[in-house]
Structure formats: C-alpha cells, structure tokens
Amino acid sequence: MTDPLDDAATATGPNGHDDEAEDFVFTPEELVDWVEGLAAMLESVDRSQNQYWCSQWWNHPEAVDRLRGLYEQWLEAQASGGMSSWWIDHFDRHATVLFSKRGPFGECGTTHVDKTARRFLAAEQPPIGWYW
Questions:
Q1: Considering the entire predicted model, what is its pTM?
Q2: Staple 126 to which of 1, 42, 107, 130, CB 3.0 to 4.6 Å?
C-alpha cells in the first residue's frame, strides 16, 4: 500500500499548491518548519500579559489542528497575495485562543506541561425527527 502523503506530494507544485484542484498539500515536516519559522518571528506573545506558548506545540492536539489550518490559509494567502488579510482574519483570531491562559498552552510556561485534567465535551445524538 502506498502512502497517500507521498502521492499527494508528487502531484503538487511549490508550497504544496496543486494548480488543478486549488488544494494545498503539505507534509508534517513542512508544517514543523513553518511553525518554527512563525514562532521565531512572533514578538507579540508575552508571558507578562498572560499569553502562553509551548515549545512542544505538537503535543497539543487542538494547537496542531489550529496551526495546520493557519498554515493552509497562509499557503493560500502566499499564492493570492493576501497576507494582510491572513494576519487579521486568520492569525489574530487563532492567536487569541492559542496563546490564552485557557488555550492549549495555558498550563505551559517555559516547558511543556501535560494538562492536569483534560476535559472532553460530551455530545449526545439528537432525538429522532430533530431538525433545524
């Protein structure tokens, strides 16, 4: 069986951009490089202002999903020339959650700390016949 990431990577152009499907495909290594580059340039995350970062960002599932989404939108903004919108419409909105005390990194300081009590939200099936 072939690895779907290998197939997707060979079908795309620079930055994982597929001109035919307008989809962005990237590898985990590309995401890591991008996050490291982004983290290295950020000046606005300040512990004295109750903003948090974790060097083990990859150990926080919500953060990984948010950063993947940011990277996908960053690739699109790079291709279309919309970087200002990316900062305002994507980064700023995710940063508000990512770096907050209640965010995925909220218990981390200068090192990674496992969440002491990870709470999973319950979701029940709606009753038969439910609609909106």
A1: 0.71
A2: 130
Low-confidence spans in the chain with pLDDT less than 50: 1-21
Backbone angles phi, psi at 121, to 5 degrees: -75, 135
Residue 66 covered by a domain: yes
Per residue in 49-81, pLDDT (tens digit) is 888 999 999 999 999 999 999 999 999 999 999
Within-domain flag for 5: no
In a domain, 129, yes or no: no
Most distant CA pair in the chain: distance in Å?
52
Q: Whole-angstrom Cα distance, residue 68 to residue 74?
A: 10
Q: How far is CA 111 from CA 35, 59, 104, in A?
A: 17, 12, 13
Q: How many helices (H) and strands (E) in the chain? A: 5, 2
Tally the domains of the chain: 1
What's the CA gap between 53 and 56, in Å, rounded? Answer: 9
